[in-house]
Amino acid sequence: MKRSRPPSRSRSRSRTRSRSLNVRALVALAVMAGAVAIALTMPVRLGLDLRGGTQIVLETKSTETTKADREATDRTVEVLRGRIDALGVAEPTIVRSGENRVVVELPGVQDPKKAADVLGRTAQLTVHSVLGAAEKPADATEGRTETAEDGERVLPDESGQSLRLKAATLTGQDVKGADARFDQQNGAGWTVTVDFKDSGSDRWAQVTGEAACNPAGDPTRRVAIVLDDKIISSPQVDPSVSCGAGITGGSTQITGSFDDAEARELALLIKGGALPVPVETIEQRTIGATLGDEAIDAGAWAAVIGTALTALFIIVVYRLMGALATVALLCYGLISYAALAAVGATLTLPGLAGFVLAIGMAVDANVLVFERAREEQAARTRPSTRSALTAGFRSAFSAIADSNITTLIAAALLFFLASGPVKGFGVTLGIGVLASMVSALVITRVLAEFAASRPAVFRRPRITGISSTGPVRDALLRRDPFLMRRPRRWLAASLIVLVVAGSGILVRGLNFGIEFTGGRLIEYSTATQVDPDRARDALADAGFPRAVVQSSGDGDLTVRTEELTDTEAATVTKAVAELGGETEKVRDELIGPSLGEELRRDALIALGLALAAQLAYLAVRFRLLFGTAAVGALAHDVVILVGVFAWLGKPIDGVFLAALLTVIGYSVNDSVVLFDRIRELLGKERKAPFDRLTNDAILQTLPRTVNTGMGAVLILASLAILADDSLTDFALALLIGVGVGTYSSVFTASPLAIELHNRDTGSRPGRRRGGRTRATGKSEKPGKQVPTSRTERQEVR
């Protein structure tokens, strides 16, 4: 006989649930109110491909010691890239043009002139001992005089007094970093703190120790800090510093009448380093979008249709809960948009497509919860929709948290260690992950629990969509396949696919795009202004489908393509002339890669560290063998995707790079969800064979895998079919990645984990045994039946 639950305890639990629901509702309302306010007041900055921007052409100049050749110009490109990142301009394009020119394209810059000034400053930082006041003032026209023999110079200080300076003791190469800070304690206002490297720290102590030997107030007790032949600070060494000892600690503070903008600008110039050679701004103009209006409209329509299909699929599968999840996903889209606007991120067309794909992937958290709720509902003799949902959220939390934390680790490392578009991808990825967690764990839960507590829903549980186990789970329960009976066969099949796909890299090689290889830039002035959309179509018909065409300046047209022979260049010119009449070449130069060697190296280092950090996290949260298996499956997916693109001859460019990074996140996410279920089953049945537990985990999570994959595939198929050619390759890469990632999480990561486990324990794969509930991994107990299918549950009274 069952003991009835005391009424006071039931009322207490009801009040606790009600309070929790109210708190979540308030949090959800606050988040949505903030998102709406930001979305209405702060527009998202659009990238060069969607809106265009400002183009600045810089020319490097030779000095007495350094020639402005191709190598010096390439080094200048990398320094400029660091300055642009520090300026907060996302998704720029920076390429070397010819031997000594740099073309910089900046999207959405509010003050192009200031940006050009910051980029054009050489930023040669030097530190000098002061020999005394100069009897002869510095030349008013030159600003300095130098003695060739000993490197002395005369420069005016901040007040205009001319000082004789000794040859430089430290240079910008001795600087480790610089930060702008507001010194409220000493009333110094905005200052710039400069940190020196080890060797620079010793020389700083030396120069300040020598100055400390002179009497207070004497000019020789000062140390001059010079930037681009101008003294920006010449402080007296404090009387507390003893002669010969100097200032230790490896840092100094530059003070002056700075406002916050000037201090930050100075800090980024010092931190970014000096340009190898001086540069001069020779041209500044407005440029049009690299994609036409038709391409943008096609991408937008594909995104809308794909999102609608995904929402319809979720509603069909999960009914009322699916409809509520769709509302939460719309909220997710608004939160992500507001977050992108708040951090000043730049939205490009691949970023927009990735943003839409993230909506499809954000379905995953909702699917995880609803599938766990279905399991809970099926396992209870007196099921309650609300209690099943509560249990579903509780059971799915660890899988959602672990999969999102691993992705956040990768996003953080990409943001802090990489640069350029890879850094921008880290921002978008991190925002998407955080927004999806808020959407699923707060907004969906508030809506679902509120709906489940309504009397109309309580009386009609079938409309919730979680009262049945679903056709996929029912089919698996009927057949109960033992997929992991022979894990080595699955590994052999994965190895064959890996070798076949990977051989494309060796046989056909990789077709790197213009971002990696550089190419040719031709600018035309035409008698009649040419529409860039028509020019793109004409060049595609002429055999140059990957040419980047932009309007430039006052009616000119710029064509950027891979390296061309003279015959091919003539074909391009003929195609433009047929549209614009009399055509003149304004510029015809070879350009370097926009994704330079240093950027690629930083991206690879960041990606390698991200994988290592994910492996370490999975080893701590699960076991080392799970982390190893997940990373092994990830490597499998990457090689197959790159290999397929090699066989197809598709370009490996910036768009493909964004797709590859997305696939990496998707693959790890799939594996983590499966390993989370294996961990849960291991906690319940430690003596059960590992291969059987893995098989049960696969069968239990397969409905989630199928439904999440369908959500992503519907959006990607829409992009591949309806969008412009520029997005077709992006969608194709992601379709391949989603398919391979879904396969590898089940048939590569799982068999690999089994083999690693067997090697550690010396055990053999298990064989079928009786007395086990299907797809649960639990032994049946006499007198108690756990309903696991639709038919069994309906027989329970």
UniProtKB/TrEMBL annotation:
It is a multi-pass membrane protein. Keywords: Cell membrane, Membrane, Protein transport, Translocation, Transmembrane, Transmembrane helix, Transport. Gene3D superfamilies: 3.30.1360.200, 3.30.70.3400, Multidrug efflux transporter AcrB transmembrane domain. Residues 74-130 form the Protein translocase subunit SecDF P1 domain. The keyword Transmembrane helix applies. Pfam families: Sec_GG, SecD_1st, SecD_SecF_C, SecDF_P1_head. InterPro entries: SecD, SecD/SecF_arch_bac, SecD/SecF_bac, SecD/SecF_CS, SecD_1st, SecD_SecF_C, SecD_SecF_C_bact, SecDF_P1_head. Residues 136-155 have a biased composition (Basic and acidic residues). Residues 155-277 form the SecDF P1 head subdomain domain. It comes from the Bacteria. Residues 279-448, 572-758 form the Protein export membrane protein SecD/SecF C-terminal domain. Residues 134-155, 758-797 are annotated as: Disordered. The chain crosses the membrane at residues 21-42, 298-318, 325-345, 351-370, 391-417, 429-452, 490-510, 603-620, 625-648, 654-675, 706-724, 730-754. It is found in: Cell membrane. Part of the Sec protein translocase complex. Interacts with the SecYEG preprotein conducting channel. SecDF uses the proton motive force (PMF) to complete protein translocation after the ATP-dependent function of SecA. Belongs to the SecD/SecF family. SecD subfamily. HAMAP family: SecD_B (MF_01463_B), SecF_B (MF_01464_B). Forms a complex with SecF. Part of the essential Sec protein translocation apparatus which comprises SecA, SecYEG and auxiliary proteins SecDF. Other proteins may also be involved. Forms a complex with SecD. Part of the essential Sec protein translocation apparatus which comprises SecA, SecYEG and auxiliary proteins SecDF. Other proteins may also be involved. This is Multifunctional fusion protein. It comes from Streptomyces rubrogriseus. The gene is secD.
